[in-house]
Amino acid sequence: MTALIAGIVPVFILIAIGYGLRKSDFLPDATWRPIEKLSINLLYPGFLIPAIWDADLSGGSAGAAGGSAVTAVLIVGALTLLAKPLLKIDGPAFTSVFQGTIRWNSFVFLPVIQSAYGAEGLALAAVMIACIIPVTNIACVAVLARWGADQRGVSPLALTRAMLANPILVACLTGLALNFLHVPPIPGISDTLKLLGGAALPLGLIVAGAGLSFAEVARRKWTVAGVTVVKLMVMPPLMWGLCVLYGGNELAQATALLCGAAPGAAAAYLLARQMGGDAPLMAGIVALTTVGSALGIPVALALFHLA
């Protein structure tokens, strides 16, 4: 148990290094966006494709893990919508609250799973990502189209194009297709993907840290704290319980628990900025949930293995 938790510590150290590099102006602000683009569009696909391609998905646990993630997102998203009349916030702020409760950061989730459960855990995690991305994208874009400042309608075709342009989703689907078709490793290509993937996790964590902004946390502390409680205290046991209900094995249950405990997604900030959401509030939610997950993930892992 101590070794599992110790393996997670470097994940958050790298996030802290990224935050320190950004705050110290070690690299100019304009540099971080191209690094983020490189990570998302090239390095992370290089990591995900072989992880799923080589995985043993013959058991039923992958379905239980993916199903629990999707069901938990739908439940929390529906409850957040029902709670909207009770929240004393405007429409754009509500869109950030909604995104904060259901979206999560794969840049943090994947290295945590790799540290704790190795390649087998990564395969389940990648399946969960492939299941969740379409659901969260559709829900968040719909909410932003309805309550964002722009209130622009989004056609089903435009939404489909946006999802198919998501490199992480495309990488997951590519890996699954190669796995299901039993395509053997391709000399040269497989090795190249694994070399790219080796750089994905450390650089992704540094980029995640560099993107953190705490300016809005103090100014809107109750809203940010409320979303953080839902994200880090409600979502993990809900996702774990659903995985148990769906018959997932111990590894699937642990993966579901850690998926629920992952912090808010930095991509949610970009979507809020693009579609008239409350981008500063979204940045504050991502920052506090990231700090909270540094404490919550080891606790969740310890409680799971003591149960």
Detailed description of the structure:
It is built from 13 helices and no strands. The protein is mainly α. The chain has one domain: Na+/H+ antiporter like fold (Up-down Bundle). α1 packs antiparallel against α13, α4 (91-102) packs antiparallel against α5 and α12 packs antiparallel against α13. The longest helix has 42 residues, at 106-147. It is globular. InterPro entries: Mem_transp_PIN-like (IPR004776), Na+/solute_symporter_sf (IPR038770). The chain crosses the membrane at residues 62-82, 123-144, 164-183, 195-215, 222-248, 254-272, 284-306. It is found in: Cell membrane. Keywords: Cell membrane, Membrane, Transmembrane, Transmembrane helix, Transport.
Summary, kept brief:
By secondary structure, this protein is mostly helical. Helix content is 80%, strand content 0%. α4 runs antiparallel to α5, α5 (106-147) packs across α11 (250-260) and α12 runs antiparallel to α13.
Offer a few descriptive terms.
307 residues, mainly alpha, transmembrane helix, Mem_transp_PIN-like
Write the layout of secondary structure elements.
Layout: H1 2-23, H2 29-53, H3 61-82, H4 91-102, H5 106-147, H6 156-164, H7 167-180, H8 189-210, H9 215-219, H10 221-245, H11 250-260, H12 266-274, H13 279-306
Helix pairs in contact: 1-5, 1-8, 1-13, 2-7, 2-8, 3-4, 3-5, 3-10, 3-11, 4-5, 4-10, 4-13, 5-7, 5-8, 5-11, 10-11, 10-13, 12-13
Membrane topology: Multi-pass membrane protein
Transmembrane segments: 62-82, 123-144, 164-183, 195-215, 222-248, 254-272, 284-306
Keywords: Cell membrane, Membrane, Transmembrane, Transmembrane helix, Transport
